[in-house]
Amino acid sequence: MTVGVREQPRGADSPRPRPGARPGLVGWLTGLAVLAGVGYRLWLLLHAAPPTNSDEATMGLAALHIARGEGFPVWFYGQQYMGTLEAYLAAPVFALAGGPSLLGLRLPTLALYALFLLLAWRLTLRLTGDRWFGLLMVALLALGSDRIVKNQLIAGGGYPEMNAAGAALALLAVDLATGRPGRRSAAAGRPGRRLARWGAWGFLAGLMLWVDPLVLPYVAATGAVLVVFCRRELWGAAGALLGVAAVLGAAPLLLHSLLTGRNPLHAVLAASGANASAGWPDRLHGGLVLGPGLGMGFCAPGQCATWQLWWALALPLLLAIAAATAWRALRIPGPAGTAAVGPDAVSPRVAAAARLALVLAAVATLGAYTVSSSAGLTPVESSRYLSCLLISLPALLWPVWTVARHGLRPAAIGRRGVGSTLARSVAVVLLAVTLGTAAHATWRAAEAVSATQAAEARHTELVGTLRQLGVRHVRAGYWTCNRLTFASAEQVVCAVVDDTLRPGFDRYPAYRREVDSAVAPAWVAPAGSPLAEVLDERQRVTPGSLDLITIEGWRIYLPR
């Protein structure tokens, strides 16, 4: 297959500044884009957006228990998978702040996003050497639709960490493959620094195995790059250090499995919908039509308009073109040296191999999601499983950027002229539409902030009212309970009930035991909910059994 994308030498059009040189226009613009991305998300956090939920509150409660020294959970409460790294990151913030808060819980996730943005920029430069393309990647990743900011900021388990870890794994793999022994390259660094990179790669790989297996395609793909370029080194001290570091990173998972005899893989398969059933038409629609637009930040909150589904058509083409161009660059024999000068020089073959690895990881991620029942049963919410695709954006859009700047190779069209001009125009339009669609989705997400802030204010009033009433124990629905307990710093303890008032799923069983031992727990329900209707019916059937207190958005039922 011949693909007519011109592979420009790294650095040919964007020379690197000398060490210590003042940053040029592209450097200042990149810095502004980074500040805009972080600033936008900080503004969201200060306005209680994106909206929180009881799952995030569960992670907050774990952080509270860690900060108090009351427990050190390995897994997200109520399940045997998804590590609690976010809770351990937030615990020091709670300890320093003197108590839990939603902002304190999310500050580490904001830091993880900033780290991802910088790593993605650095990775782009290493793979392409084009600082203007690096600016484009930073600008695109600075935008944030509803689904994107939820993945990046909500401390619900795994998602804020995965992108930063995946980008770091890819960057470390490129550094190690470029600076392998026997090559004269400034990237090789000192032997001690090189061993540290091997250890860092192994530790991150093991850590992600504990935190969330969704990033494993990127662990496998970047690991394959190391095997191809550094296989001799892996038989020595570097491989041993990598193995030890990986075991250390996955230590919580391994120790828990050894002590309990439980296999976390079974829990992961159950959570993915392996025990449920969904038809293939629904899976394909959710995984290949709705999923890419929602999961990669091109859709409005909770829905994809028909015109926003264009990305579902573009993504397979981009994957195919990116894979073909990377494979072609990998197969072309070339000099042993690098294609650019300076400390960031990367072998063209290493860069091509890394881009191909990122494309294959994206294909594996998209395929695994599509074949799961989650894609067919809950496509809007489960599109978060595609969050790692953002790591592959530099590899996906690099061929488009190359055509937009340089046109097609003459061999691909027979001659320069109309064909090359048309291709450049199509590439420019594609990049512009990509940025425009993501910007529109970001604007729509920002529009919803006022409603989210108002809902959080009503929840704060609910917590304050319960405290004023002296209510210590309540029963409520799943999406109310742990959020209420966390917001009150466990001054109000809640046990879950379903819409028929029967016991529900309590992620932290100690709360149910405490509520069951209380004399007369209250009931709390959102206004207009099925639970509120059942409790209102009880009032009508047995008048005088409950005292009703209403505040905006909520109904509190106090037993007499």
Structural summary, described in words:
- Strands 2-1-3-5-4 form a five-stranded mixed sheet, with helices on both faces.
- Strand 1, helix 22 and strand 2 form a beta-alpha-beta unit.
- Helix 4 runs antiparallel to helix 5 and helix 14 crosses helix 18.
- The longest helix has 30 residues.
- It contains 24 helices and five strands.
- The protein is mainly alpha-helical and 560 residues long.
Summarize the structure.
By secondary structure, the protein is mainly alpha-helical. The chain has helices at residues 25-46, 54-68, 85-97, 102-128, 131-142, 146-153, 159-178, 191-211, 216-234, 237-249, 251-260, 264-271, 280-295, 310-331, 348-371, 373-377, 379-382, 393-406, 410-413, 418-447, 449-468, 478-487, 509-516, 530-541; strands spanning 473-476, 493-496, 522-526, 546-551, 554-559.
What tags apply to this protein structure?
560 residues; mainly alpha; 24 helices; disordered N terminus
Rg over alpha carbons: 26 Å
* Structural class based on helices, strands and sheet pairing: mainly alpha
Strand content: under 5%
> Overall mean pLDDT score?
88
Largest sheet: 5 strands, mixed
Q: Could you state the order of secondary-structure elements as H and E?
A: HHHHHHHHHHHHHHHHHHHHHEHEHEHEE
Q: Low-confidence runs (pLDDT<50, min 5 residues)?
A: 1-21, 184-189, 335-343
Q: Helicity range of the residues?
A: 55-70%
Shape: globular
Strand order of the largest sheet: 2-1-3-5-4
List how many beta strands DSSP finds: 5
Report the total helices: 24
N- to C-terminal distance: 78 Å
